[in-house]
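quick q for whoever's on today - can somebody do inverse folding on this one?? i tried earlier but teh output was garbage lol. tokens:
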């Protein structure tokens, strides 16, 4: 089944406006610090967002999980009393940020970034460790955490990142965060269940940034 067409609004970038492909949108935001952009499902909605609003009106707002229409049996598989994490990266490497939300209502619990010269996998890894450390501090050792990244989940279970990202002066802070995360993993027991979010069955994870 073909994917539904999306339209992209760029409020702040190398060029601004409404664009009808992710590839074109990328050319407008690549290399632009803290670019502001978002996808929409219809041209009318995108045009309205661009002409009648600002990035702050549409980006980072709490939103309900964008679940697909699924059977009651499949819906029952989701553990709603949980946290969901996700990362977004403009380019590979590029500006990266990550966040965690309540799975049920997508209320944002934490957000970090953007960080220069990062990758999505690094962001997913840091988001999981951030959630684990936060829940330990809050005394919630049994609350599940959802991630849609098998790679990040694997890194957490092995207690080390396997990123091939090259270190530069621009992303030195990310390497500090990765090292800190690995130290935390090796000095703390992981008691929170880490669950795979099944995007094909359930739609985008509630922590999704909604940008592509």
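ok took a stab at it. sequence:
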């Amino acid at each position: 089944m073909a994917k539904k067409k999306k339209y992209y609004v760029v409020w702040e970038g190398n060029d601004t406006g409404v664009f009808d492909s992710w590839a074109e949108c990328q050319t407008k935001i690549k290399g632009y610090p803290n670019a502001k952009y978002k996808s929409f499902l219809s041209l009318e909605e995108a045009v309205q967002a661009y002409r009648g609003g600002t990035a702050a009106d549409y980006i980072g707002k709490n939103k309900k999980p964008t679940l697909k229409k699924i059977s009651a049996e499949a819906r029952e598989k989701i553990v709603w009393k949980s946290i969901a994490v996700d990362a977004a990266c403009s380019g590979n490497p590029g500006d990266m940020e990550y966040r965690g939300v309540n799975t049920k209502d997508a209320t944002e619990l934490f957000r970090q970034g953007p960080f220069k010269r990062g990758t999505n996998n690094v962001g997913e890894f840091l988001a999981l460790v951030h959630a684990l450390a936060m829940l330990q501090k809050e005394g919630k050792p049994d609350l599940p955490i959802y991630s849609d990244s098998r790679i990040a989940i694997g890194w957490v279970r092995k207690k080390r990142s396997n990123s091939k990202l090259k270190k530069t002066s621009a992303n030195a802070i990310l390497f500090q965060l990765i090292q800190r995360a690995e130290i935390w993993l090796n000095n703390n027991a992981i008691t929170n269940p880490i669950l795979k979010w099944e995007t094909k069955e359930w739609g985008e994870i509630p922590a999704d940034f909604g940008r592509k």
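fwiw The first strand starts at residue 7 and ends at 12. also The first helix runs from residue 22 to 29. so keep that in mind when u check it
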